[in-house]
Design goal:
Layout lengths: L7 H6 L3 H17 L5 E5 L2 E5 L3 E7 L3 E5 L2 H6 L8 E3 L2 E5 L6 H15 L15 H11 L5 E5 L2 E6 L2 E8 L4 E5 L12 E2 L10 E5 L7 H16 L16 H9 L1 H9 L2 H12 L4 H16 L12
Antiparallel strand pairs: 1-2, 2-3, 3-4, 4-6, 5-6, 7-8, 8-9, 9-10, 10-12, 11-12
């Protein structure tokens, strides 16, 4: 099935007709109890509702409708989940089972309570300062076949599910980052590593003024990045006694410096527990759900298994 959905309307319209009314009903229930500031988007190929973070996702499968509110919400709403199959962060509603409005209401309201005071990275803080380049990048990306996704609260453009490019304005420069940048030939000698010695694949092109923007050159780098993905180029995980973060966790730590600092302060054992917890998840949506769960724990300096240890 096509997964290149641009919005929730398109997602629902491309599902089997027998499921469409149920999906629209679910959407209405979520929006009824979500704050007015809630935004609808598509993230990881799923309808997603964001309010200071991921409020809830849903996805239609052959035999069931999946809800993804996160493990904490599921634990808090056990009284409404009787008879439904659950796993870490997931609730499965069989296609022949109607939606329990009270279940959805309580899941949404629980997550609203968790998220309402959440401090998240403000990717728009310097947007006005770099408005001209933001507009130029928006026009440039229309000339590619990349898919827009929302990851970590920001726009990321992908090819065949692999991250290609993202961008953002900062105080002293506007950064365009290429996720497979380490493999680029860099003919104009513009790429830098975000953190020297630690950043493996990602490379940044930093612009200090709008005058430095060159659409033709940026498109060259985008096309070369896409080719590296088609060629199967990637940096494999290093084999060492110290487990290395990878995938979603690695990318988030690279972008969110506050989280990276907190993670680095943990003991190696606690770091390993979190890395294994993310790596063990087979599906991307499960990794995302787990990441939402552990982020506040890492920031608080809490280990994944601390509650099971004797005091």
């Amino acid at each position: 099935m096509n997964t290149n959905f641009q919005n929730i309307d398109e997602y629902i319209a491309l599902q089997d007709p027998e499921h469409q009314k149920k999906l629209q009903d679910l959407r209405k229930i979520i929006l009824e109890f979500a704050p007015a500031e809630t935004k609808e988007t598509i993230s990881y190929g799923m309808p997603t509702f964001r309010y200071n973070g991921n409020l809830i996702h849903f996805a239609q499968f052959k035999n069931h409708l999946g809800l993804y509110p996160g493990p904490n919400a599921i634990e808090a709403c056990q009284n409404y989940i009787s008879g439904l199959k659950t796993s870490k962060g997931t609730i499965q509603i069989p296609n022949n089972t109607p939606i329990n409005n009270e279940l959805v209401k309580n899941l949404v309201q629980f997550n609203v309570t968790l998220l309402k005071n959440k401090i998240k990275p403000d990717w728009t803080k310097y947007r006005e300062q770099w408005s001209d380049i933001y507009e130029k990048m928006s026009q440039l990306i229309l000339k590619t076949n990349l898919k827009k996704e929302i990851k970590w609260g920001m726009d990321i453009y992908t090819h065949e599910g692999k991250n290609v490019i993202g961008w953002g304005g900062f105080k002293n420069f506007f950064s365009i980052w290429f996720y497979n940048g380490v493999f680029l030939s860099d003919p104009y000698n513009v790429l830098v590593a975000a953190t020297e010695g630690k950043t493996k694949s990602l490379r940044q092109w930093r612009l200090k003024s709008c005058d430095e923007f060159d659409e033709r050159k940026i498109l060259e780098y985008i096309q070369e990045t896409i080719q590296t993905i088609k060629d199967g180029k990637f940096i494999p995980s290093e084999k060492s006694t110290t487990l290395q973060s990878e995938g979603i966790l690695k990318d988030v730590l690279l972008i969110n410096k506050e989280l990276q600092t907190a993670f680095n302060k943990l003991t190696l054992g606690k770091q390993k527990d979190y890395i294994n917890y993310i790596n063990e998840a087979k599906q991307e949506k499960t990794k995302l759900s787990r990441l939402d769960k552990i982020t506040p724990m890492i920031l608080a300096g809490i280990g994944l298994n601390d509650k099971y240890k004797r005091k």
